[in-house]
Amino acid sequence: MAVVINSFAISGIDSYMVKIETEVTYGKPSTIIVGLGDASVKEAKERIEASINHEKYEYPKMKIVINLAPCDIKKTGSHFDLGMALGILMKTNQIDFDNVDEYAFIGELSLNGDIRGVTGVLPMVIEAKKQGIKKLIVPAINYKEAKLVSGIEIYAFDKLIDVINYLENKVPYQYEVQSEEETADDKFLDFKDVEGQDTVIDFVVAAAAGGHNLLLTGPPGCGKSMIAKRIPTILPSMTEEEALEVTKIYSVAGILKEKGSLITKRPFRSPHNNASLNALIGGGTYAKPGEVSLAHNGVLFLDEIAEFNKNTLEALRQPMEDNCVSISRVRQSQNYPANFMLVAAMNPCPCGYYGEERCHCTDYEVIKYRNKISGPVLDRIDIQKYVKGVDFTNISKHKEGRSSKELKAMVEKAKEIQNMRFKNFDKINCNAQMPNSLTKEICILDSESYKILENAYNRFKFSARSYYKFLNLARTFADLEGETNINKNHIIKAIMCRDIEKEESKMMAM
Question: What CATH code is carried by the domain that includes residue 151?
Answer without folding.
Answer: 3.30.230.10
